[in-house]
Amino acid sequence: MERVLLNFPFVAAALLVGISLYIIIFKRNLIKLIMGISMMASGVNLFLVALGYRAEGNAPIYTEVPAGRMVLPVPQALTLTSIVINVAVLALMLTMVIQIYRHTGSLDAEKSRRMKG
Amino acid sequence: MATLITHSPILIIAIPLVAAFLTPLIGMAGSKARNTLVVVSLTFVAFLVFALARDVVANGIRVYTLGSASPSLTIPPGSMVPVRIILEVDAMSIFFGIIWAIVSLAAAMFSLSHIADETGQNRFYTLLLLMVTGGFGMMFTGDLFNLFVFLEIASISGGALIAFRTRSADTQEGGFKYIVVSAIAGLMILFATGLLYAQYNSLNMATLAHVIQFTASDKIALALLLVAFTMKTGMVPLHLWFPDAYSVAPASITGMLVITSHACMYAAFRVCFTLYGGVIDGLVVGWIIVITGLLTMFVGVTMAVFQKDVMRFMSYHAISQLGYMWVGVGVGLAVLGTPELGTYGRDAMTGGIFHILNHAMYKPLLFFTGGALFHCTGTRDLAKMGGLAHKMKWTAILYIIGTLSISGLPPLNGFSSKILIYESVYRFHPILTMTGIIVSILTLASFTKAFHSAFMGAELPEYEKVREVPRSMIIGMVILAAGIVFITLFPAQVVGWILRPAANALIDQGAYINAVMGAIP
Amino acid sequence: MTFILESGYSFWNPLVWIILFLVMMVLIYFFRRQGQEKYKKDTEQAQIFLCGAEVPAPGERHIRVGNIYWGFFETLKEYYNQILKLHTGIINDYVAWFVAVTAITAVILLMAGLGK
């Protein structure tokens, strides 16, 4: 039972990535597509944080730490960096979608294909 | 000087970064001061890169440990594994560094007048320098997560630069496609990094390469890393975003994007040869790479013949040329660890890497001439051009140099790398060489077509007022053309100086590991 | 200073080609100088002659890009129809290709390991 509980975050991360891939591939609205990418980022971040978790671990801060194991600090650092990067990507994508909407008056990915072939 | 070289791996990354954030500040003092800052910082970086290259070729791999007492102290005392971020520069990294230094300098020179009429130039140069930082970081880092961070720095600034001309809709669309593809590829790389970290508790590539097992989840991580970098490189069938993004960016940025694509290719090679080098199923992965390369060559060139937009036409050619490098290095991977490596594998890899160098010279040059055409005529549509050689003699001559080089006509440099590839991959499988030659012929045919429709013919009345492009654009193009002429004249010297060491560095996984793990046998 | 690039099978020397190229240029220049004696500059000899028909204006007589290699595209029509269908220009399809190729590569790598 404990194993199942410990693996639960990984299942959730896989579900998040799977659902977001479905959204990105099948939803033609550009805003929904961006939501999908944001969700995928959350899924990957959840995966990273879950990697570093140790059962009943403490926060990895060395001052006045109680006895016992600590969770891994590196995945948390990675997640923080990844969140910052994803905020930048998200902001950039949203500005571009605003510009696309200004020019074409539409958020449909099928209409936003001036370039093909 | 010795101190400078010791610290140059981090300086090469840090100087463009600092200059990027100084740019808006200095920009308030006027555009001349800002342009001087950009050009001077890039020139100094190029100088450092060449100094470091001399050192690396002579003395072997150079490591730089961030935050430790001495840069060469990779493993802290009392620890068994490296915990700090390590930059690791071997011949392969510095080879890409040289390309990036030359092309970014040429692109900055070209931008000076190509962008002169636009608003927001301070931000343009900030992003350009950030992109330079990201590229150098990708090439020099020895840390898998750091690779992801620098990839994202290059992608975000690249995406913003593609969409720099906000007044038309297609730039926004191209930039959006680029950033979506980059974001997804980047997340998959992060996911694969997580998979590797979960098993081996390390992010350092040398440490990982030392302990990697090739379990099932390692294979999935390899597939994710390989395909994500393949997508960012722009290989068929993942090339669809490539012409969309490249054709709308300002021409100087397109030239630089070609090299970020090469940087992703470098990362893919690094993953295959160094990270998984000891355990990889070379034949299978090698064949996957070779088949992707063949598809890329053929589909890229046939699509290029069809195009009517000058930048889009050149982007498809860029895709097609990427296939040659992929085939050359893929053959090397397929025969890794077998006796064939000595007989032809090493030559195939050298040829593939040589083609990267040549492509990095002539493709930005061609993109710049395309940008010069756009600058003068205000259109990218080849059907609307004609007779421009009368007015733009320099551009026409530089275009011819680029064309002859990309088509692999002797005696230009494109030929010397193609002959290396053809003769070595022929012994792996003859079909590779045949495809290569057919693609080369089609390349020449389509460039002739574009040359005819843009430059030849009588002067058209609508382009009576067209003048030759400003001097700084010509200087940017001439820097690259000089590179082409140099490589044309001295192919053996270039191959002996940097390309064979680069191929050997890729093959010799042990040296890469030892440079970091030195104390542990 | 050797200019010879060994390719493992044969060799390549750019100098030979450049010298050959220069010799050919000299020859071409020599033949061109022989020239037509009756040619005079800036007379009607320099005009375009089109079987007596009227010569169109510069903009009209330039062969535009769409008309070049017509036969090539006509022959490969089927191929181009198929390949252009793949280039949809829709961003969602780009990601779909990525997912498909990743899945195929992962399956190939996992299958290849099973045999050993």
Summary keywords:
heterotrimer; A: 117 residues; mainly alpha; C: mainly alpha; two-stranded antiparallel sheet
Task: Write up what this structure looks like.
The complex is a heterotrimer of chains A (117), B (521) and C (116). The N and C termini of chain A lie far apart (54 Å). In chain A, 68% of the residues lie in helices and 0% in strands. In chain A, helix 1 (2-26) packs antiparallel against helix 2 (30-52). Chain A has three helices and no strands. Chain B has helices at 2-27, 31-59, 91-114, 121-140, 144-162, 169-200, 205-211, 216-233, 241-248, 251-275, 282-306, 310-334, 340-377, 393-406, 413-428, 430-455, 471-489, 491-507, 509-517, and strands spanning 62-65, 86-89. In chain B, helix 2 packs parallel to helix 4 and helix 6 runs antiparallel to helix 8 (216-233). The longest helix of chain B is centred in the C-terminal third of the chain and has 38 residues, at 340-377. The two termini of chain B are 32 Å apart. The model of chain B has no long low-confidence stretch (mean pLDDT 92). Chain C is mainly alpha-helical and 116 residues long.
Write the layout of secondary structure elements.
The complex is a heterotrimer of chains A (117), B (521) and C (116).
Chain A: H1 2-26, H2 30-52, H3 73-104
Helix pairs in contact in A: 1-2, 2-3
Chain B: H1 2-27, H2 31-59, E1 62-65, E2 86-89, H3 91-114, H4 121-140, H5 144-162, H6 169-200, H7 205-211, H8 216-233, H9 241-248, H10 251-275, H11 282-306, H12 310-334, H13 340-377, H14 393-406, H15 413-428, H16 430-455, H17 471-489, H18 491-507, H19 509-517
Antiparallel strand pairs in B: 1-2
Chain C: E1 5-6, E2 11-12, H1 14-34, H2 58-61, H3 70-75, H4 77-86, H5 91-114
Antiparallel strand pairs in C: 1-2
Report the major sheet of chain C: 2 strands, antiparallel
Category from helices, strands and their pairing of chain C: mainly alpha
Let me know the number of strands of chain C.
Answer: 2
| pLDDT averaged residue by residue of chain A | 88
Give the helix proportion of chain A (percent range).
55-70%
Task: Produce a short descriptive summary.
The complex is a heterotrimer of chains A (117), B (521) and C (116). Chain B is mostly helical and 521 residues long.
